[in-house]
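I am going through a labmate's work and have reached the protein record below. What it holds is a sequence and that sequence's fold in token form. Please read both lines and tell me whether the tokens look consistent with the sequence. Do not assume that whoever made the record got everything right. Thanks in advance; the entry in question is below.
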Amino acid sequence: MPEGDTIHYAANRMRPVLQGHVPDALETPHPRFGRDRWPQRLAGRAVRSVDAHGKHLFLRFEGGLTIHSHLRMSGSWWTLERGGRWPRSPRSAWLVLRRGEREVVQFNGPVLELMTDSRTRLDRRIAGLGPDILAPEFDERRFLQRLREDDPTRPIGDALLRQQTIAGIGNLWKVEGCFAARVDPWRRTGDVDDEEALRIVRECRPRMQQSALDGMQDRFKTIYGRAGLPCPRCGGESLIQVRGQWDDNRPTFWCPRCQR
């Protein structure tokens, strides 16, 4: 699943193309949008802003209309040279916006909807999100408050994935953040003190900020996907373990020796 830094990177790429401009063309090739008339409803409207919050992306148009996207497991956003070869089949394109020599395409995005600005403020899926780890000013107090309102028996690794607690962290950053902070992702949240919880977030945030700028997320993978290999911190004294965690059974990598 694309994580918050991937969504912010996509927004950063499309913002210079779309923000403040009326798209030359807007198309919704997928049959599910055939009766929605988005091209007609958005014709002549400039894009006011391109925003991201956690794993959600918003294209806000003049006149109080917003396209809301969540990619879940299968979707992706691309900003491409107009007329060039697409990275996926044209049949998987759900939304295409063109301006000048560039085009912005969403492929296979299971959540793609046109809504009013007021609905984006009231919709429980969006209004209930926790503070965005990539916000210019991260609200640490609000994060801790949300964390302590949650189930204290939930493992801290799983708690970090709960978007109502903190928006933007996915499985990769959960793993890498806990490793960098030397916190066992299986420890009960109620047994993780505030400073430890903040240390995880503070380890993730600058790495995610850099990835949101350049899209090079893979260089921050230290233990993710390295099950059975020596811990890069302990050397040959311990091997990286992996096990599915909590309800979604997300593969969780950790070192049993240096993460306590």
Summary: The two ends are 27 Å apart (CA to CA).
